[in-house]
Amino acid sequence: MATTACFIIVSRNEIPIYEAEVGSAVKRQASVFEDKREDAAQLHQFILHAALDIVQDLAWTTSAMFLKAIDRFNDLVVSVYVTAGHTRLMLLHDSRNDDGIKSFFQEVHELYIKILLNPLYLPGSRITSSHFDTKVRALARKYL
């Protein structure tokens, strides 16, 4: 598993609808450095949101859904998967496992489609399902 990973789903209106800090560094830091962990989470969100402009430009120039590594910050890499509805699944990580990341994105995309098919879910609103969160974290442990 990557030591650092931050996953976010951004709607077509550029509103974050799901966020999760996944990775072994999150567990390690949780008990000791609460303030440091919060600062790292904010830095990760900032890096991912800064990469949205790059994603916007790349999404219209290629037909591929998986855009691989589109941006770098120090040793962290931003990988993106753009759905047909222009929802962006973004992952900030420090690993080099492109096949695992692609599989992670594909399976999370399937989970996201299941959320969209729920008649009680309003598209573009925050995903608050604990089942969805548990599945995403399990997929992150499996593939990242």
Can you tag this structure with a few keywords?
single chain, five-stranded antiparallel beta sheet, 5 helices, 24% strand, alpha+beta, 144 residues
Structure description:
The chain has 144 residues and is of the alpha+beta class. 45% of the residues lie in helices and 24% in strands. The chain has helices spanning 24-30, 34-50, 52-59, 98-116, 130-143; strands at residues 5-10, 16-22, 66-73, 76-82, 88-93. A five-stranded antiparallel sheet has the order 2-1-5-4-3, sandwiched between helices. Strand 3 (66-73) and strand 4 (76-82) form a beta hairpin. Helix 4 runs antiparallel to helix 5 (130-143). The protein is globular and about 40 Å long. It starts with a strand and ends with a helix. Residues 26-33 have low confidence and may be disordered.
Radius of gyration: 14 Å
Mean pLDDT: 84
Percent of sequence in beta strands: 15-25%
Shape: globular
- The side-by-side strand order for the widest beta sheet comes to 2-1-5-4-3
**Secondary-structure element string:** EEHHHEEEHH
Distance between the termini: 5 Å
Characterize the quaternary organization of these chains. Answer: single chain
The secondary-structure class comes to alpha+beta
Helix fraction? Answer: 40-55%
Please work out how many helical segments DSSP would assign. 5
> Could you tell me the number of beta strands?
5
Largest sheet: 5 strands, antiparallel
Low-confidence stretches: 26-33
